[in-house]
Design goal:
Length: 107
């Protein structure tokens, strides 16, 4: 089961890489003539998460279990909100909402 978590972390890193690549240097990507450029669609918040997966996930900061609240996984200890994007929990501290941010943003 540990391998699954590693894969998820890798997926989160990949999403970050993709986002940082697609923002900014859009002009360096030449589109072939005659074809429409594919608009970039950011992953949607939410989606179904496997309950088995949910059971083994933990907050990367304090290793406490997380519970689902709307489109987020919320740590029982630090109350950080980890977003679920297209059914994939993004367990990255940088991507998480702090309790203050979560209170300001509707879930
Ligand atoms: Zn936590």
């Amino acid at each position: 089961m540990k391998r699954l978590v590693v894969v998820l972390l890798a997926a989160g890193g990949l999403a970050w890489w993709w986002r940082s690549r697609s923002s900014g240097n859009a002009d360096t990507w030449s589109t072939p003539t005659g074809s429409e450029p594919t608009p970039y669609e950011p992953p949607k918040l939410g989606g179904d998460v496997d309950p088995e997966l949910l059971a083994i996930l933990a907050c990367p900061l304090d290793k406490q279990p997380v519970t689902r609240q709307g489109n987020y996984l919320v740590c029982g200890e630090c109350q950080r909100h980890y977003p679920i994007r297209d059914g994939i929990p993004v367990m990255l501290i940088d991507e998480a909402l702090t309790p203050e941010q979560a209170a300001a943003a509707p879930i």
